[in-house]
Amino acid sequence: MMKSTAGSRILVVEDEPQMRRFLRTALSAREFEVIEAVNAREARLAVTSHPPEMVLLDLGLPDGDGIDFTREVRGWSLVPIIVISARGREDDKVEALDAGADDYLTKPFGVNELLARIRVGLRHAARLASGNQREGILKVGPLYLDPERREVRIEGQPITLTPIEYRLLLLMARNAGRVLTHQQILKEVWGPHYTHQTHTLRVFMAQLRRKVEFDPAQPRLLMTEMGVGYRMHDE
């Protein structure tokens, strides 16, 4: 059984006092333990001295860029990182996600949206820690996936997938709730020489949706992050 998120330690890396106060108030009210850093130097110290279970990271820090901080942390830690930034361009989102961020919220955003993303990120981290993404049965919404038996069911009904479709669905299920960029998916499923074949990915995602979605035109499981990639809905 997955533990409650209450009491989870969250590092807020944000130099704007008003936003930092907003996040501290919202998170403390939900019984999260909040630690704060106003720049990259303080964030590095906090990550190593008081290891958090999640990082909320602004990209525009006074002593560096949050994307560089993300790459640095990803070199030795799998802690979930949610970028919270005023930068709303698709290129910025893709760069942050490719650097290792788990999710991206564009300011301004609501408390409920933030809390939903935090819950998903903590669940994903718990699956990684328990090893379920390697060996155990994966259950996400109507999806049941047994990697050991290569068995896939939707609402209890078995479905047949091609090898590529299976690898694509398995990758999405293992990262349920996390945004995966086109490049990340293509590299994992097809290989490093196919990272620009976004049309191929769209074709296979459309095929996969026809098999796992009740209404492929309005997907509820395999969601598109416009211009960025895809996310398996996990809420």
From TrEMBL:
Residues 135-234 bind DNA. The modification 4-aspartylphosphate is found at D58. Keywords: DNA-binding, Phosphoprotein. Transmembrane segments: none annotated. Pfam families: Response_reg (PF00072), Trans_reg_C (PF00486). Residues 9-122 form the Response regulatory domain. PROSITE patterns: OMPR_PHOB (PS51755), RESPONSE_REGULATORY (PS50110). Residues 135-234 form the OmpR/PhoB-type domain. PANTHER family: KDP OPERON TRANSCRIPTIONAL REGULATORY PROTEIN KDPE, REGULATOR OF RPOS. This is KDP operon transcriptional regulatory protein KdpE. The lineage of its organism: Bacteria, Pseudomonadati, Pseudomonadota, Magnetococcia, Magnetococcales.
